[in-house]
Amino acid sequence: MSLNTIKNKFIIYLCSNMVRKIIIPIALLLICSIASAQQTYKSHIQEDTRRAGAVFAPYDMSYRTDSPAPRGYKPFYISHFGRHGSRFMSDGVKDLRFLSILQKADSLGILTDDGKEILKRTTIIVKEAEGRYAQLTPLGEREQKALAQRMSSRFPSIFKVKEGIVRAESSVAPRCILSMTAFTNALKGSAPQLDFSFAAGERYQQYIAPEGTVDIAQRLARKAADSLSKASMKGDKFFAKVFNDIETAASLASPETFANLAYGLGCEAICIGRDELDIFKFFDIDELEGYAIVRNNLSYAWSGRTIETGDIRARSAAPLLRRIVEKADEALSEGHVVADLCFGHDSNVLPLACLIGIDGADQDISFVDAHKTWRADEHLCMAANIQFVFYKDKKGHILVKVLENERERLLHIGIEPVFGSYYDWEALRSAFLLKCA
User: Fold this and answer.
1) Which range has the worst mean pLDDT, 16-30, 53-67, 74-88, 259-273?
2) 11, 72, 336, 382: which could join 393 in a potential S-S bond, CB 3.0 to 4.6 Å?
3) What is the mean pLDDT of the chain?
4) What is the average per-residue pLDDT within 301-313?
5) What pLDDT is stored for residue 15 in this prediction?
């Protein structure tokens, strides 16, 4: 049965008034899952080569929709944990090495026309990044501003109150602090009547960005990555596209090393967000897929649940989840806090998703197969986020729905939603605290 046939059958079924309100949220999630399953990873990145950046892919700002809440329930509080926006690389060592190889090759006259164009683009990227390593790019700032504006317009009953408090916290990393600044400035523009408080420091770092298990997971993941890297990261086609004298070029760098450096620069280029600097366009799609798979799967192994690393990273998010619950308790008790915003890193977004059982991040996956069911550009891209949106009725009963990158998600956490993707807060709170034990 074709995907279109499946979709049409769902649409006909959803037209029934008897089931529409209950089935729509679940059906939409199922349709998305079917579509994703039928698309190969290669075709996925071929549609948009920026996706090959995996965790370096920019945030997808396409339209989001909300399934209807039960009658009488309106949003009144939101808790947001998000990754910083698009950034420059951590340092310029690899960029400068790649540039040096290209410059040397140019002096030897062995660059093809494509090679000369890549040299031109590399020179601009290196200049853009100089002195801004690991910092937010202008695209990263725009991502955070857009997220804030969308949040305000999507949930007006939260932010159009006469008075209220927004509490914001950040990792000590400058890119996270700047993300917090961009986000809150945009939110303040939409809701100038709200009061904002800000915090960052080691006290908050303990739950925003605990690093205790990262090294352990990375060591285990890198051992598992060796065979996959050797099979996927050859670089021969890219090498031949850049140089007209392969033998001389090989004395400057091996094809594998050179293409690996180019891939890293390509990731930086998409974080800058200027089409004229695109490096991925010069890759053969098969080679680009190979590099993307390794980056995708390493990212999942570092921060997710794999057969090789177990749930060691998921457990590291317990302090963060406990703090989310505590701050929600404070907000509900005090009645003046409308939003809690927290800005951290990809290394903590995915562990949180795994811990609370977000659909797709709740099972152990083999490292080598991660890309078949999990895609970093969809779940752990720049500015990736998890939001908890609180609703209540006139009687004060509270429901919560969870958004991953602004999309409604079901949770595999031992309880069922009371309606669509809406969970009873007391039941969800208890399940969360049990996960933190």
Assistant:
1) 16-30
2) 72
3) 89
4) 85
5) 38
Write the CA distances from 221 to 41, 151, 308, 377, integer angstroms.
Answer: 21, 36, 7, 19
DSSP 64: -
Given a cut of 70, is residue 18 above it in pLDDT? no
Tokens in use for 138? 């202008």
Tell me 16's DSSP state.
Answer: -
What is the amino acid identity at position 15? C
Angle, in degrees to the nearest 10, between helices 318-334 and 346-355: 80
Q: What is the dihedral of CA 199, 205, 206, 212, to 10 degrees?
A: 170
End-to-end CA distance of the chain: 45
Residue 19 is predicted with a pLDDT of: 38
Read off the pTM: 0.89
Instruction: Answer yes or no: are the C-beta atoms of 74 and 257 closer than 8 Å.
Output: no
Is beta strand 74-83 parallel, antiparallel or unpaired with respect to 385-392?
Answer: antiparallel
> Is residue 349 within 8 Å of residue 409, measured between CB atoms?
no
The residues, ordered by sequence, that sit 6+ positions from 24 with a Cβ below 8 Å of its Cβ are 14, 67, 68, 420
Ramachandran sector of residue 235 (left: φ over 0; alpha: ψ -120 to 50; beta: rest): left
* Length of the chain, in residues: 437
The torsion region of residue 335 among left (phi > 0), alpha (psi -120 to 50) and beta comes to left
* pLDDT in the model for residue 353: 97
Cα–Cα dist 190/252, whole Å = 54
Instruction: Name the token pair of 354.
Output: 């795994």
pLDDT at position 34 is 39
Q: Report helix angle 318-334 to 425-436, nearest 10.
A: 150
Q: What are phi and psi of 282, to 5 degrees?
A: -90, -10
Question: What band does 234 get if pLDDT is binned at 50, 70 and 90?
Answer: confident
